């Protein structure tokens, strides 16, 4: 057993000492007492369902709740109107909790257990960020009240981080140096299971490729036209061929966001939006170069022109097992999500729609085994994790077997089982924060692992370059 692992095991043993046990009781009770606040805020964010960089009301609501608790708030950080940093306390250490609140466009659903789109809504919380924001808010307030009642020195910060879904809000905040004085950052995510396993993520980059050509009558003068849509489709054909010759853990996907308006008009503009993912940022760069060449070749072959704008880019999560093992212990102390009979009946209806993917409803109450694994999603938390030691967890806010970015996830994120999951996350994060404030040895060991993982002479580099935040990317 290496030194860091040995220290981590020691921390888990220390967690049962009478003094620490006494210190973690009150904050958990505070989280339980805030259930109505968690529900109210999560429901309001779910109702609004504001997309990336346009979360004006959502951000304002979180800031208002924090201001009412005495937090000092700095709004509009990193050049992003809906980003903020809220802080309470004095001195150190500084423990950060991350909060997200952006929705996904194009997925609308009521809180019904059957498919029931809300036609008036153009977006929905299919990734549970309404729960993420509300649960993190509750945890930050609980920690603040614990610091205040115990007289413990230190600062609790809540980072309001917009546009996680393809906007990389945290990358701009990291690039601005907003995490440089943070000792430890804590995050969580909505999911269909409870886990604090050390799961990494894929690095990724996206861009909108824009083809321009010449309009003409598609029947009367086709020879005069040069179809921008042909350019986009030729690029897509070559990109699809690339799939056969990419590393197994890489991912690439796209949508055509503009392709013309009428079949009898040769379109002079087309746009296709691409994502590239790989466990290593260098792998993203290598695939990206091939994708750019495909775009150039497609334009050359179709007599069109192409330009592209990088929209976002995330580094992979740098896991910290010193912290992850302690978070796993805190989550097990809290326990999972238990359904009432009414919630179980609702969840059973959702499960029917999941087909073979459905899992036993009892899984919502269990904590998954601890391990270290590769996750195939991407998150801008990755960039934060290269700036400061970072730890997270996932809570069962959705019916077991539910995929993120689905209507079933939207429905559960606006349901009581989702709110219960947010409370589970808030309790675990609160316990973790209290441990970090009272355990300098844990903070030191986490920093030692962090420094070793980054390596000597590490210099941060973002995958989106030096561009400004794309505040209009969802407009």
UniProtKB/TrEMBL annotation:
<dbReference type="InterPro" id="IPR036264">
    <property type="entry name" value="Bact_exopeptidase_dim_dom"/>
</dbReference>
<dbReference type="InterPro" id="IPR011650">
    <property type="entry name" value="Peptidase_M20_dimer"/>
</dbReference>
<dbReference type="InterPro" id="IPR052030">
    <property type="entry name" value="Peptidase_M20/M20A_hydrolases"/>
</dbReference>
<keyword id="KW-0732">Signal</keyword>
<keyword id="KW-0378">Hydrolase</keyword>
<dbReference type="InterPro" id="IPR002933">
    <property type="entry name" value="Peptidase_M20"/>
</dbReference>
<protein>
    <submittedName>
        <fullName>Amidohydrolase</fullName>
    </submittedName>
</protein>
<feature type="signal peptide">
    <location>
        <begin position="1"/>
        <end position="21"/>
    </location>
</feature>
<dbReference type="Pfam" id="PF01546">
    <property type="entry name" value="Peptidase_M20"/>
</dbReference>
<dbReference type="InterPro" id="IPR017439">
    <property type="entry name" value="Amidohydrolase"/>
</dbReference>
<feature type="domain" description="Peptidase M20 dimerisation">
    <location>
        <begin position="206"/>
        <end position="297"/>
    </location>
</feature>
<dbReference type="Pfam" id="PF07687">
    <property type="entry name" value="M20_dimer"/>
</dbReference>
<dbReference type="InterPro" id="IPR017145">
    <property type="entry name" value="Aminobenzoyl-glu_utiliz_pB"/>
</dbReference>
């Amino acid at each position: 057993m290496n030194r860091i692992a040995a220290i981590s095991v020691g921390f888990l043993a220390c967690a049962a000492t009478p003094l620490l046990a006494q210190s973690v009781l009150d904050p958990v009770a505070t989280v339980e007492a805030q259930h109505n606040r968690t529900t109210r805020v999560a429901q309001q964010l779910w109702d609004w369902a504001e997309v990336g960089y346009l979360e004006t009301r959502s951000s304002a609501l979180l800031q208002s709740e924090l201001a009412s608790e005495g937090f000092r708030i700095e709004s509009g950080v990193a050049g992003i109107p809906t980003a903020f940093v809220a802080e309470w306390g004095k001195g150190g250490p500084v423990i950060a909790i991350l909060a997200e609140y952006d929705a996904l466009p194009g997925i609308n659903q009521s809180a019904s257990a059957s498919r029931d789109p809300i036609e008036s809504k153009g977006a929905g919380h299919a990734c549970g960020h309404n729960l993420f924001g509300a649960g993190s808010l509750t945890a930050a307030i609980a920690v603040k009240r614990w610091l205040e009642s115990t007289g413990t020195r230190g600062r609790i910060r809540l980072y309001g981080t917009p546009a996680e879904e393809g906007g990389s809000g945290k990358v701009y905040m990291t690039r601005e140096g907003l995490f440089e004085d943070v000792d430890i950052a804590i995050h969580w995510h909505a999911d269909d299971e409870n886990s604090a396993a050390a799961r990494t993520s894929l690095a990724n980059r996206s861009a909108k490729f824009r083809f321009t050509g010449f309009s003409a009558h598609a029947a009367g003068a086709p020879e005069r036209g040069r179809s921008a849509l042909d350019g986009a489709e030729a690029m897509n054909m070559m990109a699809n061929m690339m799939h056969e010759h990419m590393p197994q853990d890489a991912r690439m996907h796209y949508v055509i966001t503009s392709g013309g308006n009428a079949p009898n008009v040769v379109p002079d503009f087309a746009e296709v939006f691409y994502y590239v993912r790989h466990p290593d940022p260098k792998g993203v760069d290598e695939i990206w170069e091939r994708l750019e060449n495909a775009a150039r070749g497609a334009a050359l072959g179709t007599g069109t022109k192409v330009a592209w704008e990088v929209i976002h880019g995330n580094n992979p999560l740098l896991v910290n097992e010193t912290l992850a093992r302690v978070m796993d212990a805190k989550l097990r102390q809290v326990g999972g999500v238990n359904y009432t009979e009414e919630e179980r009946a609702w969840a059973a209806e959702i499960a029917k729609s999941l087909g073979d993917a459905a899992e036993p409803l009892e899984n919502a109450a269990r904590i998954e085994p601890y391990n270290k694994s590769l996750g195939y999603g991407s998150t801008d938390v990755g960039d934060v994790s290269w700036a400061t030691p970072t730890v997270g967890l996932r809570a069962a806010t959705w019916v077991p077997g539910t995929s993120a970015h689905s209507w079933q996830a939207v429905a559960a994120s606006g349901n009581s089982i989702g709110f219960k999951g947010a409370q589970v996350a808030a309790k675990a994060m609160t316990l973790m924060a209290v441990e970090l404030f009272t355990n300098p040895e844990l903070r030191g060991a986490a920093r030692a692992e962090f420094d070793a993982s980054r390596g000597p002479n590490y210099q941060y580099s973002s995958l989106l370059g030096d561009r400004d935040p794309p505040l209009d990317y969802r407009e």
